[in-house]
Each structure stands twice: as C-alpha cells, then as structure tokens.
C-alpha cells in the first residue's frame, strides 16, 4: 500500500495543549478530501512498582467522560523538558513520591488514536519511589493507593482502569513477568 499524499494543512484552533488542523489529503486510489488532525502535547507517565509488587494508582474523576477510574501519574511534557524529567516531575506533583529520572526504565510508547491524532504517550517504570511530602497537585486525585500487581488485570477487565496511558503501561508490565 502506498503512502497518503498531503497537499497542505491549516490550523483551525491552537493552544499549548492541543491543536486542531484541517489537512488536505489524498489516500492511495481514493479521492482527495479534508481530514481533521488533532495534535496533542507529548505525555510522560510512570508506573511505580514497589519491592512488594504493588503499583501506585490514583483514583480520579475525568470530566470529559464523566467517569471515575484508577490512573498512573502522567502529564504534559513542558517545553525543553526531557521525557524522564517530565515523568519524574509529574510523579512528585501528583503523588508526593520522588523518583530518580536517571533510573526510569522505558516501558511503553504509543499513539492512542493514530488515524486522526498525533499524541505521543511515553510510559516509564520506576522502582525507587520515596515519599517526600503530600502532593502539590491536590486536584489530580481523590485518593492514592498502592495496589497489588496481581489485581491489575482484573481491574482493567472491570473497567476500573481505562485511561489509555495507564492501560498501556500496566499491560506492558504484566506482559513481562519477572523482567522488572
């Protein structure tokens, strides 16, 4: 199959977090048309794994879907910030735990909606979490809990963990028993 041809694009909306473009494209063997493209700021996330094989999860409400679910610490990478530093910063801000960005292990990378968005999500694994203080981003989670790793698959199955970046990172961890 051949590559789609892009004739040009124009930005319809832009903010530091998201941009919406209208792109003039022609798929192979198909007529040319205007396609929406959502460009999102890159996201860095972290699965914190304890020596007791527990992961740190945050219980939170998401207004966009009007749902409550468990998530891992994650957030937008700031301009000029390296992915591991962003991941470590988000962990500290959202949970109060400190992790060493130099010791983060890449766990997963994904583009959650590749057909209509450019939204890079990078998930790291941290094994060295140390509690520092209460989180500064108190609006991020209703509660924060260490959860046994052997409960995670069932929580995903019951839709208690639904955020794409959390599901991706946690499933990658579960797919490699003993590797971490």
UniProtKB/TrEMBL annotation:
Keywords: Hydrolase. This is NUDIX hydrolase. The keyword Hydrolase applies. Pfam families: NUDIX (PF00293). The keyword Hydrolase applies. Its EC number is 3.6.-.-. It is an enzyme of class 3 (hydrolase). Its cofactor is Mg(2+). Transmembrane segments: none annotated. GO terms for molecular function: hydrolase activity. It comes from Streptacidiphilus alkalitolerans. Belongs to the Nudix hydrolase family. Residues 40-169 form the Nudix hydrolase domain.
